Automatic annotation (TrEMBL):
Transmembrane segments annotated in the record for this chain: 5-21, 27-49, 61-80, 100-122
Keyword Protein transport: no
Protein name per UniProt: DUF2809 domain-containing protein
Key words, A-Z: Membrane, Transmembrane, Transmembrane helix
């Protein structure tokens, strides 16, 4: 139970940092600033899955978070009216995004990798 509390807390904290990152983008080097939000989003996904499935090993959780993140990004290639209407809402934009970018896939990979390193550092894995 303690693991779930820790992972929930981290998930919420990363989500808040991600939302605030747009306001404070100036603190990041201009070379990485455009990718910080996507990396944080992917980290939130990783820790969200750790919260839901705390007994999963690191590699499985890494793969699930990566597949989920990539699927969301690839879904942005689909531009039907009904899903675009969802994307126009605040929550829809935050979850589904707007347009497919190859660089987002790299950002997700980096963000999830950072999350695994943090997770390993916390020593909550087997």
């Amino acid at each position: 139970m303690k693991k779930r509390i820790v992972y929930f807390t981290i998930t919420v904290a990363v989500m808040l940092v991600g939302l605030l990152s747009r306001k404070f983008m100036f603190i990041f080097p201009t070379s990485i600033a455009p990718f910080v939000g996507d990396m944080l989003w992917a980290m939130m996904v990783y820790f969200g899955f750790r919260f839901l499935f705390p007994k999963l090993d690191l590699l499985k959780n890494f793969n699930i978070a990566l597949i989920f993140s990539f699927a969301i990004e690839i879904s942005q290639l689909y531009q039907a009216d009904w899903i675009n209407a969802i994307r126009k809402t605040t929550i829809g934009a935050l979850v589904l995004g707007h347009g497919f970018l190859w660089m987002d896939l790299i950002s997700y990979f980096i963000g999830i990798t950072i999350a695994v390193i943090i997770d390993r550092f916390l020593n909550y894995t087997k």
